[in-house]
């Protein structure tokens, strides 16, 4: 039985859902995190609380990091970190990635998945893209990215990523930042566990936006556009922030239309959850990044495109076609069942674990 370890962070619930479906397919797959976040995503084991520096906690983290390479066949790391990357204790030091390097010396398989700002370098994103959250005035982290984080990410990509047997990215833009990587669709949602709640075509229009970071998602421009449209349309706007995952999911079910983001060029886990519920989703899509997508996936994209310069006009055009929203919702659900089905992605991942040189091919292609 293949022994797989995911960690040391549960970003967007991707490692949890993937590990559960790897278990269904017969692997022994666990998710362990150094600490959890306010989102309170599920894990098999949380080693400590955030920034807990007691002797007992430090020893527990260190012992797990040292022993994991001996206990597992595959170590799948997220957010550009390994279990010795104690980012909540301070900046990188010479202990970081010691467990990853030990795993390589022991002949274990090492995989990495990047999901966004763990690999995106803000200076490169701004130089390449006309529209990006990395331009001045959007993401509040831009100054620290330019002063510190961009160089740290480049260091990880140049020195640590080559040690991995396989590297994946969940956002097409990141292929330009991590050239060794292969695109993988989100496997962060157990699609079939959601029953569709189709959008209403009459009465008040419930529009929902759930930003993890307002600057990254373009929240101010979304709010401004919706407030202007409220003067002409019966809109009820739900802003989901600082809420546990379970509570947020309950609010998603009430939405008729979900706005994901207007800056990053791709959709996130919230969009996948909303589409699984049969909701039409609007966001900014950067088509020049799409070369890494499977051709059929690119052709079937059901998302409604928003452009920052014309966001109010774009949204009003969508509202005027409200009678079509249930059909758009059905297309969205069919799309995520086909392209974000964790059972299919877990099966492809297990084949990659067994042979890292194999083509990462989804059976739906």
Describe the structure.
The chain is of the alpha/beta class and 365 residues long. The protein folds into two domains: 3-187 and 342-354, 3-Layer(aba) Sandwich (Rossmann fold), CATH 3.40.50; 191-339, 3-Layer(aba) Sandwich (Rossmann fold), CATH 3.40.50. 38% of the residues lie in helices and 13% in strands. The protein has a seven-stranded parallel sheet, with helices on both faces. The protein has a five-stranded parallel sheet with strand order 9-8-10-11-12, with helices on both faces.
Question: Can I get a quick summary?
Answer:
By secondary structure, the protein is an alpha/beta fold.
Keywords:
Rossmann fold; 2 domains
Q: How far apart lie the N and C ends?
A: 28 Å
Shape: globular
Q: What's the order of the H and E elements?
A: EHEEHEHEHHEEEHHEHEHEHEHHH
Strand order of the largest sheet: 3-2-1-4-5-6-7
**CATH class of the largest domain, please?**
Alpha Beta
Estimate what percentage of residues fall within beta strands: 5-15%
CATH-defined topology of the largest domain: Rossmann fold
Total helix count?
Answer: 13
Taking all Cα atoms into account, the compactness measure Rg is 21 Å
Task: Walk me through the topology.
Layout: E1 3-7, H1 14-24, E2 28-33, E3 45-46, H2 55-71, E4 74-78, H3 98-105, E5 109-114, H4 122-128, H5 142-160, E6 166-169, E7 182-183, E8 205-209, H6 214-217, H7 219-229, E9 235-239, H8 245-252, E10 257-259, H9 269-276, E11 281-283, H10 295-300, E12 304-305, H11 311-320, H12 325-339, H13 342-354
Parallel strand pairs: 1-2, 1-4, 2-3, 4-5, 5-6, 6-7, 8-9, 8-10, 10-11, 11-12
Helix pairs in contact: 1-13, 2-3, 7-11
